Amino acid sequence: MSVSNDIVQSLVRNKVEFVTTVPCKQLAGVIDIVENEPSIMHVPSNKEDEGMGLCAGAYMGGKRPCIIMQNTALGVTFNTLSSLTQFYNMPLPMIISYRGEIGEKVAIQVEMAKHTKALLDELKIQTYHFHEPEDIKDLDSILNHTYMSRKPTAILTDSNFWGGY
Amino acid sequence: MIRSDIIKNLLPVIRDELVVCNIGLPSQELHMMDDQPTNFYMLGTMGLSSSIGLGLALSQKAKVISIDGDGSILTNLGTMPTIANNVADNFILFIVDNGSYGSTGDQPTYAGQKTSLAKVAEACGCENVVECQAEEAVDVMKAALASDKMTIIVCKCESGNIPVPVIEYDAPVIKYRFMEEVKRKNA
Questions:
Q1: Quick check: B173 contacting A, CB < 8 Å?
Q2: Which helix (H) or strand (E) holds B100?
Q3: Closest CA in chain B for residue A151
Q4: CA A5 – CA A1 distance, rounded (Å)
Q5: pLDDT by 10s per residue, chain B, length 187
Q6: ipTM, 2 decimals?
Q7: pTM of the model
Q8: Taking CB atoms and an 8 Å limit, are B40 and A58 in contact across chains?
Q9: CATH of span A2-107+115-159
Q10: CB atoms < 10 A from the CB of B170, how many?
Protein backbone atom coordinates (compact mmCIF):
# COMPACT_ATOMS: atom_id res chain seq x y z
CA MET A 1 0.00 0.00 0.00
CA SER A 2 2.83 2.40 0.75
CA VAL A 3 4.30 2.42 -2.75
CA SER A 4 0.78 3.00 -4.07
CA ASN A 5 0.51 6.04 -1.85
CA ASP A 6 4.01 7.19 -2.80
CA ILE A 7 3.11 7.03 -6.52
CA VAL A 8 0.01 9.15 -6.06
CA GLN A 9 1.87 11.64 -3.87
CA SER A 10 4.47 11.99 -6.61
CA LEU A 11 1.71 12.59 -9.18
CA VAL A 12 0.21 15.28 -6.95
CA ARG A 13 3.61 16.94 -6.31
CA ASN A 14 4.20 17.08 -10.05
CA LYS A 15 0.77 18.61 -10.74
CA VAL A 16 -0.55 15.61 -12.65
CA GLU A 17 -4.26 16.39 -12.78
CA PHE A 18 -5.63 13.86 -15.28
CA VAL A 19 -5.14 10.14 -14.81
CA THR A 20 -6.68 7.29 -16.75
CA THR A 21 -6.39 3.70 -15.64
CA VAL A 22 -7.06 0.18 -16.83
CA PRO A 23 -7.05 -2.25 -13.94
CA CYS A 24 -4.49 -4.86 -12.88
CA LYS A 25 -4.38 -6.73 -9.55
CA GLN A 26 -1.03 -5.14 -8.79
CA LEU A 27 -2.49 -1.69 -9.45
CA ALA A 28 -5.64 -2.06 -7.35
CA GLY A 29 -4.23 -0.01 -4.47
CA VAL A 30 -2.91 2.85 -6.58
CA ILE A 31 -6.14 3.05 -8.62
CA ASP A 32 -8.15 3.27 -5.42
CA ILE A 33 -6.01 6.13 -4.12
CA VAL A 34 -6.12 7.97 -7.47
CA GLU A 35 -9.93 7.72 -7.44
CA ASN A 36 -10.06 9.38 -4.04
CA GLU A 37 -7.41 12.06 -4.63
CA PRO A 38 -9.28 15.37 -4.98
CA SER A 39 -6.60 17.11 -7.09
CA ILE A 40 -6.72 14.37 -9.75
CA MET A 41 -9.48 13.81 -12.29
CA HIS A 42 -9.66 10.05 -12.68
CA VAL A 43 -11.26 8.77 -15.88
CA PRO A 44 -11.10 4.97 -16.12
CA SER A 45 -10.84 3.76 -19.70
CA ASN A 46 -11.97 0.53 -21.27
CA LYS A 47 -8.86 0.00 -23.34
CA GLU A 48 -5.40 1.49 -23.16
CA ASP A 49 -5.38 3.15 -26.58
CA GLU A 50 -8.65 4.85 -25.67
CA GLY A 51 -6.96 6.05 -22.50
CA MET A 52 -4.08 7.47 -24.51
CA GLY A 53 -6.60 9.41 -26.61
CA LEU A 54 -8.14 10.83 -23.43
CA CYS A 55 -4.66 11.79 -22.23
CA ALA A 56 -3.88 13.54 -25.53
CA GLY A 57 -7.03 15.62 -25.16
CA ALA A 58 -6.29 16.40 -21.52
CA TYR A 59 -2.78 17.53 -22.41
CA MET A 60 -4.08 19.88 -25.09
CA GLY A 61 -6.55 21.15 -22.51
CA GLY A 62 -3.65 22.18 -20.29
CA LYS A 63 -3.57 19.27 -17.86
CA ARG A 64 -0.64 16.97 -17.17
CA PRO A 65 -1.85 13.46 -18.02
CA CYS A 66 -0.76 10.00 -16.90
CA ILE A 67 -1.88 6.48 -17.77
CA ILE A 68 -1.70 3.57 -15.36
CA MET A 69 -1.95 0.21 -17.12
CA GLN A 70 -0.64 -3.35 -17.43
CA ASN A 71 2.22 -4.39 -19.72
CA THR A 72 0.08 -7.00 -21.50
CA ALA A 73 -1.70 -4.14 -23.29
CA LEU A 74 1.40 -2.62 -24.86
CA GLY A 75 0.80 -4.37 -28.16
CA VAL A 76 -2.62 -2.79 -28.70
CA THR A 77 -1.23 0.68 -28.00
CA PHE A 78 1.59 0.51 -30.56
CA ASN A 79 -0.21 2.54 -33.23
CA THR A 80 -1.48 5.14 -30.77
CA LEU A 81 1.92 5.63 -29.13
CA SER A 82 3.51 6.00 -32.54
CA SER A 83 0.93 8.00 -34.55
CA LEU A 84 -0.57 10.12 -31.80
CA THR A 85 1.62 10.52 -28.72
CA GLN A 86 4.97 10.49 -30.49
CA PHE A 87 3.95 12.00 -33.83
CA TYR A 88 2.36 15.06 -32.18
CA ASN A 89 5.08 15.41 -29.48
CA MET A 90 2.87 14.81 -26.49
CA PRO A 91 4.11 13.84 -23.03
CA LEU A 92 2.69 10.70 -21.46
CA PRO A 93 4.13 8.93 -18.43
CA MET A 94 2.95 5.34 -18.46
CA ILE A 95 3.04 3.69 -15.06
CA ILE A 96 2.95 0.06 -16.08
CA SER A 97 2.35 -3.01 -13.99
CA TYR A 98 5.16 -5.30 -15.18
CA ARG A 99 3.45 -8.65 -14.93
CA GLY A 100 5.32 -11.87 -15.71
CA GLU A 101 8.57 -11.01 -13.96
CA ILE A 102 10.15 -12.82 -11.00
CA GLY A 103 7.48 -13.33 -8.35
CA GLU A 104 4.71 -13.83 -10.91
CA LYS A 105 2.17 -16.53 -10.05
CA VAL A 106 0.39 -16.82 -13.40
CA ALA A 107 2.39 -18.48 -16.17
CA ILE A 108 0.61 -16.78 -19.08
CA GLN A 109 1.78 -13.37 -17.87
CA VAL A 110 5.35 -14.35 -18.71
CA GLU A 111 4.51 -14.37 -22.41
CA MET A 112 4.04 -10.60 -22.68
CA ALA A 113 6.77 -9.92 -20.11
CA LYS A 114 9.22 -11.44 -22.61
CA HIS A 115 8.18 -8.81 -25.17
CA THR A 116 7.67 -5.80 -22.93
CA LYS A 117 11.10 -4.19 -22.99
CA ALA A 118 11.63 -5.15 -26.64
CA LEU A 119 8.38 -3.41 -27.66
CA LEU A 120 9.30 -0.27 -25.72
CA ASP A 121 12.78 -0.36 -27.19
CA GLU A 122 11.35 -0.73 -30.70
CA LEU A 123 9.31 2.44 -30.10
CA LYS A 124 12.42 4.16 -28.68
CA ILE A 125 10.50 4.95 -25.50
CA GLN A 126 12.68 5.82 -22.52
CA THR A 127 12.02 3.09 -20.00
CA TYR A 128 12.62 2.89 -16.25
CA HIS A 129 12.31 -0.34 -14.28
CA PHE A 130 11.23 -0.13 -10.63
CA HIS A 131 12.32 -3.36 -8.93
CA GLU A 132 12.90 -2.27 -5.33
CA PRO A 133 10.31 -0.24 -3.40
CA GLU A 134 12.89 2.52 -2.91
CA ASP A 135 13.10 2.98 -6.70
CA ILE A 136 10.02 5.17 -6.24
CA LYS A 137 12.47 7.98 -5.36
CA ASP A 138 13.09 8.46 -9.10
CA LEU A 139 9.44 9.01 -10.03
CA ASP A 140 9.49 12.79 -9.46
CA SER A 141 12.38 13.27 -11.84
CA ILE A 142 10.95 10.84 -14.41
CA LEU A 143 7.65 12.74 -14.45
CA ASN A 144 9.49 16.05 -14.76
CA HIS A 145 11.60 14.60 -17.58
CA THR A 146 8.52 13.31 -19.41
CA TYR A 147 6.72 16.66 -19.49
CA MET A 148 9.95 18.44 -20.42
CA SER A 149 10.63 16.08 -23.32
CA ARG A 150 7.00 15.90 -24.55
CA LYS A 151 7.38 12.20 -25.20
CA PRO A 152 5.93 9.03 -23.71
CA THR A 153 7.98 7.31 -21.03
CA ALA A 154 7.46 3.90 -19.45
CA ILE A 155 7.84 3.13 -15.75
CA LEU A 156 7.79 -0.65 -15.40
CA THR A 157 6.84 -1.72 -11.89
CA ASP A 158 7.41 -5.41 -11.18
CA SER A 159 6.12 -7.80 -8.55
CA ASN A 160 9.09 -7.25 -6.27
CA PHE A 161 8.47 -3.49 -6.30
CA TRP A 162 4.85 -4.01 -5.25
CA GLY A 163 5.78 -6.63 -2.63
CA GLY A 164 3.52 -9.21 -4.29
CA TYR A 165 -0.19 -8.80 -4.84
CA MET B 1 -26.05 14.28 -49.12
CA ILE B 2 -22.61 12.92 -48.35
CA ARG B 3 -20.19 13.70 -45.50
CA SER B 4 -18.51 16.61 -47.28
CA ASP B 5 -21.92 18.29 -47.79
CA ILE B 6 -22.62 18.02 -44.08
CA ILE B 7 -19.23 19.43 -43.11
CA LYS B 8 -19.68 22.28 -45.58
CA ASN B 9 -23.09 23.15 -44.15
CA LEU B 10 -21.77 23.00 -40.59
CA LEU B 11 -18.82 25.36 -41.20
CA PRO B 12 -20.53 28.61 -40.14
CA VAL B 13 -21.74 26.94 -36.94
CA ILE B 14 -18.54 25.18 -35.88
CA ARG B 15 -15.77 27.44 -37.19
CA ASP B 16 -15.30 29.28 -33.89
CA GLU B 17 -15.47 26.16 -31.74
CA LEU B 18 -12.69 23.71 -30.90
CA VAL B 19 -13.09 20.84 -33.36
CA VAL B 20 -11.33 17.49 -33.09
CA CYS B 21 -11.66 15.92 -36.51
CA ASN B 22 -11.48 12.27 -37.44
CA ILE B 23 -8.59 10.73 -39.38
CA GLY B 24 -8.57 10.58 -43.16
CA LEU B 25 -11.13 12.22 -45.41
CA PRO B 26 -13.13 14.08 -42.72
CA SER B 27 -10.00 15.97 -41.61
CA GLN B 28 -8.89 16.49 -45.21
CA GLU B 29 -12.32 17.86 -46.18
CA LEU B 30 -12.44 20.21 -43.19
CA HIS B 31 -8.87 21.32 -43.89
CA MET B 32 -9.63 22.01 -47.54
CA MET B 33 -12.89 23.85 -46.95
CA ASP B 34 -12.08 25.89 -43.84
CA ASP B 35 -8.63 25.48 -42.33
CA GLN B 36 -8.66 26.99 -38.84
CA PRO B 37 -6.24 26.83 -35.89
CA THR B 38 -9.27 25.70 -33.87
CA ASN B 39 -9.27 22.47 -35.89
CA PHE B 40 -7.30 19.53 -34.55
CA TYR B 41 -6.68 17.23 -37.49
CA MET B 42 -6.03 13.60 -36.67
CA LEU B 43 -3.40 12.32 -39.06
CA GLY B 44 -3.46 8.84 -37.57
CA THR B 45 -5.03 6.69 -34.85
CA MET B 46 -8.42 5.70 -36.18
CA GLY B 47 -11.07 5.63 -33.49
CA LEU B 48 -9.74 8.16 -31.02
CA SER B 49 -11.49 11.37 -32.10
CA SER B 50 -14.16 10.96 -29.42
CA SER B 51 -11.57 10.08 -26.75
CA ILE B 52 -9.35 13.06 -27.56
CA GLY B 53 -12.41 15.32 -27.61
CA LEU B 54 -13.70 14.03 -24.29
CA GLY B 55 -10.30 14.37 -22.61
CA LEU B 56 -10.08 17.93 -23.89
CA ALA B 57 -13.61 18.82 -22.83
CA LEU B 58 -13.06 17.45 -19.33
CA SER B 59 -9.82 19.45 -18.96
CA GLN B 60 -10.88 22.98 -19.86
CA LYS B 61 -13.99 25.13 -20.24
CA ALA B 62 -14.43 25.83 -23.96
CA LYS B 63 -16.86 23.83 -26.04
CA VAL B 64 -15.42 20.89 -27.95
CA ILE B 65 -16.92 19.20 -30.99
CA SER B 66 -15.56 15.83 -32.04
CA ILE B 67 -16.37 14.98 -35.63
CA ASP B 68 -16.30 11.21 -35.84
CA GLY B 69 -17.50 8.49 -38.16
CA ASP B 70 -19.52 5.33 -37.71
CA GLY B 71 -16.56 3.16 -38.64
CA SER B 72 -14.29 4.93 -36.18
CA ILE B 73 -16.83 4.66 -33.37
CA LEU B 74 -17.07 0.92 -34.07
CA THR B 75 -13.26 0.72 -33.88
CA ASN B 76 -13.33 2.25 -30.38
CA LEU B 77 -16.76 1.24 -29.13
CA GLY B 78 -15.48 1.36 -25.54
CA THR B 79 -15.55 5.14 -25.86
CA MET B 80 -19.33 5.26 -25.42
CA PRO B 81 -19.52 4.09 -21.79
CA THR B 82 -16.57 6.33 -20.93
CA ILE B 83 -18.38 9.33 -22.43
CA ALA B 84 -21.67 8.42 -20.74
CA ASN B 85 -20.09 8.07 -17.32
CA ASN B 86 -17.85 11.16 -17.48
CA VAL B 87 -20.28 13.88 -18.48
CA ALA B 88 -18.75 17.01 -19.98
CA ASP B 89 -21.49 19.49 -20.85
CA ASN B 90 -19.07 21.33 -23.15
CA PHE B 91 -18.73 18.23 -25.34
CA ILE B 92 -20.58 17.37 -28.53
CA LEU B 93 -19.85 14.13 -30.35
CA PHE B 94 -20.99 14.41 -33.96
CA ILE B 95 -20.94 11.05 -35.70
CA VAL B 96 -21.24 11.16 -39.48
CA ASP B 97 -22.94 7.84 -40.05
CA ASN B 98 -22.70 7.01 -43.73
CA GLY B 99 -22.67 3.26 -43.09
CA SER B 100 -19.25 2.90 -44.63
CA TYR B 101 -15.51 3.13 -44.10
CA GLY B 102 -15.25 6.16 -46.39
CA SER B 103 -11.52 6.80 -46.24
CA THR B 104 -10.64 3.27 -47.25
CA GLY B 105 -12.99 2.78 -50.19
CA ASP B 106 -16.53 2.78 -48.80
CA GLN B 107 -16.56 -0.74 -47.43
CA PRO B 108 -19.83 -1.23 -45.52
CA THR B 109 -19.84 -0.94 -41.72
CA TYR B 110 -22.19 -2.76 -39.36
CA ALA B 111 -23.70 0.65 -38.48
CA GLY B 112 -25.19 0.69 -41.96
CA GLN B 113 -26.69 -2.73 -41.36
CA LYS B 114 -28.26 -3.98 -38.11
CA THR B 115 -26.35 -1.86 -35.58
CA SER B 116 -27.80 1.45 -34.38
CA LEU B 117 -25.12 3.73 -32.92
CA ALA B 118 -27.82 5.94 -31.39
CA LYS B 119 -29.19 2.94 -29.52
CA VAL B 120 -25.64 1.92 -28.54
CA ALA B 121 -25.06 5.40 -27.12
CA GLU B 122 -28.32 5.29 -25.21
CA ALA B 123 -27.66 1.80 -23.90
CA CYS B 124 -24.25 2.96 -22.70
CA GLY B 125 -25.94 5.66 -20.65
CA CYS B 126 -25.59 8.77 -22.81
CA GLU B 127 -28.44 11.10 -21.91
CA ASN B 128 -28.78 13.41 -24.92
CA VAL B 129 -28.64 11.33 -28.07
CA VAL B 130 -30.06 12.71 -31.31
CA GLU B 131 -30.28 10.75 -34.52
CA CYS B 132 -30.90 12.97 -37.51
CA GLN B 133 -30.74 13.08 -41.28
CA ALA B 134 -28.03 14.99 -43.12
CA GLU B 135 -30.41 17.84 -43.97
CA GLU B 136 -31.09 18.43 -40.26
CA ALA B 137 -27.43 18.52 -39.18
CA VAL B 138 -27.09 22.31 -38.90
CA ASP B 139 -30.21 22.77 -36.80
CA VAL B 140 -29.34 19.84 -34.56
CA MET B 141 -25.80 21.15 -34.06
CA LYS B 142 -27.08 24.65 -33.26
CA ALA B 143 -29.48 23.21 -30.70
CA ALA B 144 -26.74 21.09 -29.13
CA LEU B 145 -24.41 24.08 -28.83
CA ALA B 146 -27.19 26.17 -27.28
CA SER B 147 -28.21 23.44 -24.83
CA ASP B 148 -24.97 23.41 -22.82
CA LYS B 149 -25.53 19.69 -22.40
CA MET B 150 -23.25 16.93 -23.56
CA THR B 151 -24.86 15.68 -26.76
CA ILE B 152 -24.26 12.71 -29.03
CA ILE B 153 -25.44 13.32 -32.59
CA VAL B 154 -25.70 10.45 -35.05
CA CYS B 155 -26.14 12.03 -38.47
CA LYS B 156 -27.22 9.60 -41.17
CA CYS B 157 -26.10 10.29 -44.72
CA GLU B 158 -25.12 8.70 -48.01
CA SER B 159 -21.65 7.29 -48.47
CA GLY B 160 -19.36 8.96 -50.97
CA ASN B 161 -16.26 11.09 -51.16
CA ILE B 162 -14.85 14.12 -52.95
CA PRO B 163 -11.24 14.56 -54.08
CA VAL B 164 -9.19 16.30 -51.38
CA PRO B 165 -5.51 17.08 -50.89
CA VAL B 166 -3.58 15.50 -48.04
CA ILE B 167 -2.77 17.68 -45.04
CA GLU B 168 0.83 18.87 -45.27
CA TYR B 169 1.12 20.33 -41.76
CA ASP B 170 3.56 18.66 -39.43
CA ALA B 171 1.64 17.13 -36.54
CA PRO B 172 3.30 19.29 -33.84
CA VAL B 173 2.26 22.40 -35.81
CA ILE B 174 -1.38 21.26 -35.76
CA LYS B 175 -1.06 20.61 -32.04
CA TYR B 176 0.72 23.87 -31.28
CA ARG B 177 -1.71 26.19 -33.01
CA PHE B 178 -4.66 24.25 -31.58
CA MET B 179 -3.28 24.53 -28.04
CA GLU B 180 -2.79 28.27 -28.50
CA GLU B 181 -6.50 28.51 -29.35
CA VAL B 182 -7.39 26.44 -26.30
CA LYS B 183 -5.36 28.82 -24.14
CA ARG B 184 -6.97 31.86 -25.76
CA LYS B 185 -10.46 30.52 -25.17
CA ASN B 186 -9.66 29.79 -21.53
CA ALA B 187 -7.84 33.05 -20.79
A1: no
A2: strand B100-101
A3: B172
A4: 6
A5: 999 999 999 999 999 999 999 999 999 999 999 999 999 999 999 999 999 999 999 999 999 999 999 999 999 999 999 999 999 999 999 999 999 999 999 999 999 999 999 999 999 999 999 999 999 999 999 999 999 999 999 999 999 999 999 999 999 999 999 999 999 999 9
A6: 0.98
A7: 0.98
A8: no
A9: 3.40.50.970
A10: 13
